[in-house]
Specification:
homodimer; about 425 residues; alpha/beta; 13 helices; 13 strands
């Protein structure tokens, strides 16, 4: 029965029962973690043979004859570029292969714009009023980069097919202090939304007021489907070219959730001009990234097809966990009118929207019985959810049995928070 | 016979003979490289077993129970901190273990100062007049960081025991736009000079005009001795504390010339306050560096003693090459009055000072017969050697037989350049 149509007495009785269960749960001494999108142990074991794939000597020579143990090759191994070229549908020459962290590349890309500007003829952003558009809910670490560097963030609501493009187009075309926009175009963090071709076309065809407006296209989950092949999307890189917007975007990806979160390889892709500009500054920063680890990846996966085959193994491990979220939410929340949630086809998260004003309380209740989720507000700029309604669920790390318990506790706490809210509003 | 005391005729005859040899050399079609301080193939093979030392599963767990394959542990593995703690004589808690490049850490440390300032209460350096003191000759990549970020460089002459401290103290204490100083304290690049305890004490006890003056102490060759154990120096970290200058320095080191130039691990060490400040910004930039590679290093080397034993193997390969430089220079230059050179006890370079005005010409003559050395001027800020006298010799990479040829060619070209110079001056 819908909480909001319950009588005062019915709701009080419901709340009493929920609190009884909560007191019982307290006694269990739980210690469960659904807070971050990380691989579980079984996933980590999938790539085991990669660890010993290089044996030294001639084994460490890349296909262009470079000894990967030594210095050099700023932009990375051609064999890794080729794989990411297929993954991202971007020419290999437009890719730089870096170290183990795409977050690091994104931070450095923003920092570079602050210190030098985004290209020849553009001023450094430092000391100026800079705004970034942030589709919400989104990835907390994107927002942390902006906050750290004093970049003002503007919330953009997400629709079921991507950011609200009417709002984006208006802001980008009218305000030349709008210099950036974060996008996670496929299996978006945390909603799982796949940007539609219509949205991608509208993004690629924008006419920004600022010549140095840049899109940070974080394709973190580009091959991370749960059911079958990855979703097919309009080629953003090519689409940009159609509108003469070649330089308008930086594209990022990594193997953090393909091989190892701590020891994968990450790339940036962009126009010829942007890549040349980046390399010209990057060469001051580093002689070359870890090519041995790049070579391990190339040898182990071999090709895009090899990556896809490998992702099926990840999906087999993750599917039951995402199914468990859907089933539990459906069973526990259905008909209560207090919760809506995403049903992602890929990625690492489920986005849960509770009745307004109930997310922080739910987080708090959960924490008190030993269940850790991403803090309420985290998926929004400055950690502030104006509706206090969104929670990010990261179901991948805990084993299935623990996940079930954690999800039941989450539902219990969410119900308590919502019932309390409705009660208090009636007083 | 000394070139400067030769008669005009004697010198002309000498030059004729040299040029004859040069014409012969041209026909050899040489392709030799003494340009960068990199390991040769035999050195790269020394660490071969490290490549397959991790097999997956429980093997990948650090001593503090972290699965190194997954995310986390921003400041690196305790076992690697412990080894660097012994190498640098700095407490483990004052160390952050990063990725494969100390250059990257140094760049990021300067960039962080530009964007945020060096600590709470200090202004960002961006947009202000910032000067760095640069002992010369020095490391070209240090100077490139300054040039790239618009930092003005001030040349400081090197004495046999380190930078000219009278000049350093005066500038640091009187000019509050002096914010930094580069130091390679042991087996300095390129001169091989080991800073004396007296110099280290004077550096540590300075009273800078700028509260945000910082020393960039690049201890790149801390264990890289050629003959016996590494030189023992005053503990800089402890010395800073004595004078209340705890926060005044960042210390850098790496295994680039211990394990692999392209795939080692690098660290930064500093005061408690600096480390906390750095981590607080670094956590925005990256979740954690490659811990699997850190673990490989810890497992393979085991301890500081393990590192020292390993460095003996490097020294055994490198000693004949450095001996060859010394013997060739002694044989070819002795008594001519045109060249002085360093006789390093460690590190990767020999610094050659020719008669003023002869370095660029020597470089050019060498390039034309297929012998590559570091471009003249490179070891000085802005690539400009005011005396046009210094050349950096990097003897480690070529096999001994090639090195011998390359060195003979270098001596030939240097003699031509100097003889030409003297002739032209007499006209």
């Amino acid at each position: 029965m819908n909480y909001s149509t319950m009588t005062k007495q019915q709701l009080a009785e419901e709340l009493r029962k929920l609190r009884e269960k909560y007191e019982e749960a307290k006694l269990l001494g739980l210690k469960l973690d659904m807070s971050r999108g990380i691989q579980d142990k079984d996933q980590l074991d999938l790539t085991q043979e990669m660890l010993t794939i290089l044996h030294g000597g001639s084994d460490c020579i890349s296909e262009n004859g470079i000894d990967c143990r030594n210095y050099g090759l700023l932009d990375g191994l051609p064999e890794v570029k080729n794989i990411f070229s297929d993954i991202l549908e971007v020419p290999a020459q437009n890719i730089i292969v870096c170290g183990n962290s795409s977050l690091n590349i994104m931070y450095d890309t923003v920092a570079r714009a602050m210190l030098y500007g985004v290209g020849d003829g553009y001023e450094p952003w430092f000391g100026r009023k800079i705004k970034f558009l942030c589709p919400v809910p989104g990835y907390d670490r994107h927002f942390a980069i902006c906050e750290s560097l004093g970049i003002e963030m503007v919330n953009i609501p997400m629709t079921s097919e991507g950011p609200d493009m009417d709002m984006v187009e208006k802001l980008v075309s009218e305000d030349d202090s709008v210099k950036g926009m974060w996008c996670v175009p496929k299996y978006s963090n945390p909603s799982g939304i796949v940007y539609s071709d219509r949205v991608i076309n509208r993004i690629a065809s924008m006419k920004p007021a600022a010549g140095d407006f840049r899109i940070f296209w974080d394709n973190a989950y580009v091959v991370h489907s749960l059911y079958g092949l990855p979703a097919k999307q309009l080629n953003f890189f090519e689409e940009l070219k159609k509108y003469g917007n070649d330089d308008m975007a930086y594209i990022f990806a990594s193997t953090s959730k393909i091989s190892y979160p701590g020891a994968g390889v990450a790339v940036i892709a962009s126009s010829d001009r942007n890549i040349a500009y980046i390399k010209n500054i990057m060469k001051i920063q580093i002689i070359g990234h870890d090519k041995l680890n790049q070579l391990r990846h190339a040898r182990y996966f071999g090709s895009y097809e090899g990556i896809l085959r490998h992702m099926e193994k990840h999906a087999a491990i993750l599917r039951p966990k995402f199914d468990c979220v859907e089933e539990t939410f459906e069973k526990e929340f259905s008909g209560l009118g207090i919760a809506e949630w995403s049903k992602p086809e890929g990625g690492y998260f489920v986005s849960l929207n509770l009745q307004n004003g109930c997310a922080a309380r739910t987080y708090e209740l959960l924490a008190d019985i030993g269940v850790k989720i991403t803090p309420a507000g985290s998926p929004l700029p400055y950690g502030k959810d104006p509706n206090d309604s969104n929670l990010r669920i990261a179901p991948t790390f805990p084993p299935l049995s623990e996940l079930k318990t954690a999800l039941n506790m989450l539902c219990l706490c969410a119900k308590i928070a919502c019932a309390e809210k409705i009660c208090s509003e009636r007083e």
